Amino acid sequence: MLRLAIQKSGRLSEDSLNLIRECGISFLSASYKLKTEATNFPLEILYLRDDDIPGYVQDGVADLGIVGQNVLVEAGFPGLEVEGLGFSKCRLSLAVPRAAAYDSIEDLQGVNIATSYPQILGQYLTERGVKANLHTISGSVEIAPSIGLAEAICDIVSSGSTLLGNGLREVETVFRSEAVLIANQNLSAEKKELLEQLQFRMQAVRRARR
Ligand code: ATP
Ligand code: ZN
């Protein structure tokens, strides 16, 4: 039996459940439950917070997971990725107040930047020789400049309307992300075989959607 961890409730949840269903896998989903078992495939689905999924798969508590690449890379386990799933596309971007002067990344030298992604952002800045002060906050990053916590932010963007609504302008793309399937590195031969079957079905679903 394979254990697949998906986000309990959030932007990944519905597309993750739809993908599993379109693979022909049936299960009763009750949003208050922590897990469900499929009725026609040896699969158990665990419902977790997305941030917990990479660690659970790394430790083998779950065999597989569906999570955003942003969360996977931030957690420090990029090697768990098996394949991209094509949904929940978004980017991690740097933004500054609309009126602030900004010509290049050099302008962030010594600046306070609020983000929920200190690892990804830290590496991006280091690679470009920029030393900034990163302030890690877990939510509502986009209000940080207006409350005086930071002069810039780095956050998830899809349409850009949240940034605009907070008087911010996007100045650099730090990371591009989509939902990915991840797997524990030490699956048994039986589980590997099941994973291959599941991937085969997922790929067929994606081809049929095009
Ligand atoms: P949890 O309660 O599980 O911790 P969360 O609030 O951290 O949830 P969500 O906002 O549901 O997370 O986002 C989950 C993932 O969906 C993000 O990590 C990212 O990969 C993707 N995502 C976030 N915002 C968008 C967006 N606007 N458009 C598309 N995908 C997005
Ligand atoms: Zn989260």
UniProtKB/TrEMBL annotation:
It is an enzyme of class 2 (transferase). Keywords: Amino-acid biosynthesis, ATP-binding, Cytoplasm, Glycosyltransferase, Histidine biosynthesis, Magnesium, Metal-binding, Nucleotide-binding, Transferase. Its cofactor is Mg(2+). GO terms for molecular function: ATP phosphoribosyltransferase activity. Its EC number is 2.4.2.17. Signal peptide: none annotated. It is found in: Cytoplasm. It catalyses: 1-(5-phospho-beta-D-ribosyl)-ATP + diphosphate = 5-phospho-alpha-D-ribose 1-diphosphate + ATP. Residues 49-203 form the ATP phosphoribosyltransferase catalytic domain. Pathway: Amino-acid biosynthesis; L-histidine biosynthesis; L-histidine from 5-phospho-alpha-D-ribose 1-diphosphate: step 1/9. Feedback inhibited by histidine. It comes from the Bacteria. Belongs to the ATP phosphoribosyltransferase family. Long subfamily. Catalyzes the condensation of ATP and 5-phosphoribose 1-diphosphate to form N'-(5'-phosphoribosyl)-ATP (PR-ATP). Has a crucial role in the pathway because the rate of histidine biosynthesis seems to be controlled primarily by regulation of HisG enzymatic activity. This is ATP phosphoribosyltransferase. The gene is hisG. The chain holds residues 1 to 210 of 283 of the full protein.
